Amino acid sequence: MPELDLSLPSVDLTRAVCDIPSVSDDETTLADAIFAAVSALPHLDVVRDGDTIVARTQLGRAQRVVIAGHIDTVPINDNLPTRPVVEDGAQYLWGRGTVDMKAGVAVQLKLAAELVAPRVDITWMWYDHEEVAAELNGLTRLAANRPDLFAGDFAILGEPSNGQVEGGCNGNLRAIVRTRGVRAHSARAWIGDNAIHRAAPILARLADHTPEEVEVEGLVYREGLNAVRVSGGVAGNVIPDLCEVEVNYRFAPSRSIDEAVAVVERFFDGYEVEVVDLAGGARPGLDAPLAREFVAAVGAEPRPKYGWTDVARFSALGVPAVNYGPGDPSLAHHDEERVPVAQIDAVERGLRAWLSAP
Amino acid sequence: MPELDLSLPSVDLTRAVCDIPSVSDDETTLADAIFAAVSALPHLDVVRDGDTIVARTQLGRAQRVVIAGHIDTVPINDNLPTRPVVEDGAQYLWGRGTVDMKAGVAVQLKLAAELVAPRVDITWMWYDHEEVAAELNGLTRLAANRPDLFAGDFAILGEPSNGQVEGGCNGNLRAIVRTRGVRAHSARAWIGDNAIHRAAPILARLADHTPEEVEVEGLVYREGLNAVRVSGGVAGNVIPDLCEVEVNYRFAPSRSIDEAVAVVERFFDGYEVEVVDLAGGARPGLDAPLAREFVAAVGAEPRPKYGWTDVARFSALGVPAVNYGPGDPSLAHHDEERVPVAQIDAVERGLRAWLSAP
């Protein structure tokens, strides 16, 4: 089993964490390594639930902060192992997971080991299956098995935010849009009805669409509606009777989930639409006292978060939550995913300063 | 191993042959049964090459006719086992393979067993992998291993032709039309470039296309250009960087294969096109003396064949070839594939009469 040395500098620890591949549904090796490393720390109370690991200080502090990060990544595309790269004179760590979000996880692991007496009690959470359907998310399972572990006054997700504080998040909907036809031999196509040809207007509507920008509590959320998968076909000589386009709608946190469903149904009017994944967004939540204090301590300008993150889950539980982590979210899932080393260090310094302050 | 009783009436033998599933690449069970049945016939010289079986009379006749049928089918879609159905007072056998082309194969097997002294020598061929790429076709392999077996003065393919004689066939081209983009997290789609959206005009061109009708030697061939598969997508939250549309072009036998490639490249101008399967058509070939004699003997009106069939292969070898088999080709590959019992009997009578005539 690979071992993690939490005394390494954050950038080296990031590299070690990234070089243990952990594509969604294949996180066990990394989870084992994290569990072993934090179980060795006497100041933490460690609980494991599947491939999710929770480590808590129990100092009897007046307030508790949850600091969480997912340990899975999207599929590798020839971008592991990691390597150091230099761009415009700045040092980066390149490779799958460096941005989304193993640099954040590495900083958390390092601070979990070193902050034996923080100013607030801390619940560290490292969890699985964030990059796939919401019902598979490790926090969904943990919330069912151990809802008590989510107790807290404030939560920080280490999702990439360029070392800035990003408030709230867009909601996330996935749906299958279907066309149906009639199979026939492709030599006599006029007998059948081609379901793939029937999907032409679906792709055309998507290609022509301009997403909205929606202001919520002073932050502007940019929406998105995209095909993420398309499939259809039976054999090379058969007119296909089914075509499925999977679409992903990212919607502003001012929209309810019902409204998001209505938007998609209206957009694909005339087609069969099946919603397969749905998670509401989160309003910025930057008016909470601990949130204001945290933003001031790390010296950041709050921005909107475009991607759905688990801040929405904490927000729904009444725990104000923000995103704060190294890495440019524009490069998450990108083949050229890479994190500036300076941001890893800055986030480590920011969190350490705030959590250590008297 | 299932056994085939070649003394059964043709319709019952058709049923037995259909109820041994033999989707392309899974023909061995049926090939074993055919091999066992014809190997028991002392008047035939039997050769097996993979799942292709060739059985020849060696009577020293002045002329030799090749009579061939493929034993594979397209995928089953809840349409096996076969069942008898009645429609408008007529009896049908319903199920995968009944039309394309196991009724034809059953008639051939029965006549192979019973015609011990035909007027011409006969080379019976039952072969695998017709419903997939041309390079997998059992006859491609046989032509490489045993080209001598293709010698003949005339060839009859038992492909469905409603019991009529269908001359020649359209050519067949398959190509992949690709769009490329740039992956990104779907929460920030504007960073990436959606390859599926880029495929919208490909599907629109296909949906708007009206195929040509081309007259060749008095017969009118109807062309077709269709998407038969579409695929694209990486994960539910990733902007896809690749979309592939597989298209199938059926082209009139007056077009060369080079011309067919040019038509497709022109049609998808601006896109990456890769031809993955290409087989030329066959001109009707009804001016050959044996062909004229055969048409007169079975009392049929020649028609054009739309689908590509292996007549093109014989045609290319200089052996005039026609399609003659039971079943409506419009129902080939159809979920409701069904063959009129009367056509099975008529084709058996037609072939038997011509082959037995003094």
Q: Summed up, what is this model?
A:
The structure is a homodimer. Chain A has about 350 residues and is an alpha+beta fold.
Record keyword descriptors for this entry.
homodimer; 358 residues; alpha+beta; Aminopeptidase; Alpha-Beta Plaits; eight-stranded mixed sheet; four-stranded antiparallel sheet; 10 helices; 19 strands; globular
Structure description:
2 copies of one chain form a homodimer. By secondary structure, chain A is α+β, with helices and mostly antiparallel strands. Chain A has 2 domains: 10-169 and 282-356, 3-Layer(aba) Sandwich (Aminopeptidase), CATH 3.40.630; 171-279, Alpha-Beta Plaits (2-Layer Sandwich), CATH 3.30.70.360. The first copy, chain A, is 28% helix and 28% strand. Chain A has 10 helices and 19 strands. Chain A has helices at residues 10-18, 28-39, 98-114, 138-145, 195-198, 200-208, 257-267, 289-298, 311-316, 341-356; strands at residues 45-49, 52-56, 64-70, 83-87, 90-94, 121-127, 154-157, 165-167, 171-180, 184-185, 213-216, 219-222, 224-233, 238-239, 242-251, 272-279, 303-304, 321-324, 338-340. In chain A, the strands form 5 sheets. Chain A has an 8-stranded mixed β-sheet with strand order 1-2-6-3-7-18-8-17. In chain A, strands 13-15-9-16 form a 4-stranded antiparallel β-sheet. The first copy, chain A, has a 3-stranded antiparallel β-sheet with strand order 4-5-19. The longest helix of chain A is centred in the first third of the chain and has 17 residues, at 98-114. Chain A is globular, with a radius of gyration of 22 Å.
